[in-house]
Automatic annotation (TrEMBL):
Residues 8-166 form the N-acetyltransferase domain. Gene3D superfamilies: 3.40.630.30. PANTHER family: GNAT FAMILY, PUTATIVE (AFU_ORTHOLOGUE AFUA_3G00765)-RELATED-RELATED. This is Ribosomal-protein-alanine N-acetyltransferase. SUPFAM superfamilies: Acyl-CoA N-acyltransferases (Nat). Residues 148-168 are annotated as: Disordered.
Length: 168
């Protein structure tokens, strides 16, 4: 799915994305660690195995992983649906530091909501965000998620969100 305002495409994760995803994660590691737990050195040194495992989860229908790819082929974000079960999934996303604050996260989440509804037939999404990460909470609110409770994250207290994908 093309996001014309950003000249990026939302694509299902594929085997051919491995190098670009690794570069994205490495380039943004310190930035991401300021918002969410650091993935640790092992994540980077054995990324090929991790990528293969993600593709296997996707093939099994457990998760649906997506990347945001710019016109140079670089990954500039990830938007994922995890733990698909009973018509529901958990949304997670990461946007490159150089794209932060430009609306790409909101556009990407909106695009994935539409894919979740129309292509995957999901009925509801959940998400969570640290109370330390107001930007992520704002993305969830702007895209129609509503707070439904509190949670605990590695960075302290957080908020749980839900979104119904069923027509009212």
């Amino acid at each position: 799915m093309y996001l014309p305002d950003y000249d990026v495409t939302l694509e299902p994760l594929g085997a051919d994305h491995a190098d670009a995803v690794l570069a994205f994660e490495q380039e943004n590691r310190q930035y991401f660690a300021s918002w969410i737990w650091d993935r640790g050195d092992e994540f980077f040194t054995d990324y090929a195995t991790r990528h293969a495992a993600l593709l296997a989860e996707q093939e099994a229908g457990v998760c649906r992983f997506h990347v945001l790819v710019d016109n140079t082929g670089a990954v500039v974000g990830r938007v994922n649906l995890m733990d698909l079960e009973n018509g529901s999934a958990e949304l997670g996303y990461r946007i490159a530091e150089k794209w932060a604050g430009k609306g790409l996260a909101t556009a990407a989440v909106r695009a994935l909501i539409e894919v979740a509804r129309t292509e995957y037939g999901l009925k509801a999404l959940t998400a969570g965000a640290s109370n330390h990460n107001g930007a992520s909470q704002a993305v969830l609110t702007r895209t129609g998620f509503r707070p439904v409770g509190s949670s605990s994250t590695d960075l302290g207290p957080g908020t749980k969100y839900e979104l119904s994908l069923e027509s009212e």
